[in-house]
Amino acid sequence: NVLIDFTGRARLADFGIAKPLPGTGAEEELRAETSTGVLKGKVGYMSPEQLRFESPDRRADLFALGVVLYELLAGRRLYHGSDGAEGARRILHEPPPDIMDEREDTPPEVVQLLFLLLAKEPGMRPENAVEVAERLEAIQQGLDAEYGRTVHLGEYAGSFFEREPAEGQKTIEDGMARP
Questions:
Q1: What is the rounded CA–CA span in Å between residue 117 and residue 122?
Q2: CA dist 163 → 20, 120, 151, 156 (Å)
Q3: Which of 85, 91, 135, 164 is most buried (CB neighbours < 10 A)?
Q4: Half-sphere exposure (CA, 13 Å, Cβ side) for 122?
Q5: Residue 90's closest CA among 99, 78, 108?
Q6: CB–CB of 82/66 below 8 Å?
C-alpha cells in the first residue's frame, strides 16, 4: 500500500510479513516467520525469484516497484484478478509487458526503465533503489526541460483539498506522537 500525503511524500504501509532488522531492538516486538514452501504476500507484486522460492534480495522490491509504476501509468492492475497460480504463471513465464500498449505517450526512458524493473532475472534489474531514483529524477528533469515545469505530486494531491491539508497534517502528527 502506497499512501501519498498532502506534501506529495509517499509512505509505504501494511508490512504484514515484514521482519525487523537484527540488532534494532524490534526483534521481539515484530516476529513474522514464513513457513518453507508457503508464499506470503500479494502474488501480483512478487518477483519471479520469490515465486521460485529463492532467497530474494533488494532487487525483488525493485520488481514490485516496477509493477506499481506500470499500474500508475496504465491506470489499472498489471496482474488484476490473478493473485493465485495464474498470476504466478504470468509473472514467471510471460515477457514483461510494454507500457506503450497502454500509454503511447510514455517517454522512451520510462519504457526502458520499466523493462529493467520487470526483468525476470534479478541481475538484469538496477542494483538498488538509489539508481532507480536517480534515473527517475533525470527523466523528470528532461520532461521539465521539454514541456516546462510539471506539477509536483504534492501540488496535485493538495489540489483535491482546501482546508484538509492542515487538518490532515495535524492528524498525522498527533498519530505519530502517540506511543
A1: 9
A2: 37, 45, 20, 15
A3: 91
A4: 19
A5: 78
A6: no
pLDDT higher than 50, residue 130: yes
Q: What is the C-alpha separation between 69 and 61, in angstroms, rounded?
A: 12
Record the pTM. 0.75
pLDDT digits (tens, 9 = 90+) for 37-91: 666 778 899 999 999 999 999 999 999 999 999 999 999 999 876 567 888 999 9
**One-letter amino acid identity for 33?**
E
Grid coordinates in use for 41?
504476500
- Contact (Cβ atoms closer than 8 angstroms) between residue 11 and residue 1: no
DSSP H/E element including 10: strand 10-12
User: What would the grid cell of residue 144 be?
Assistant: 521539465
CB 160 within 8 A of CB 6: no
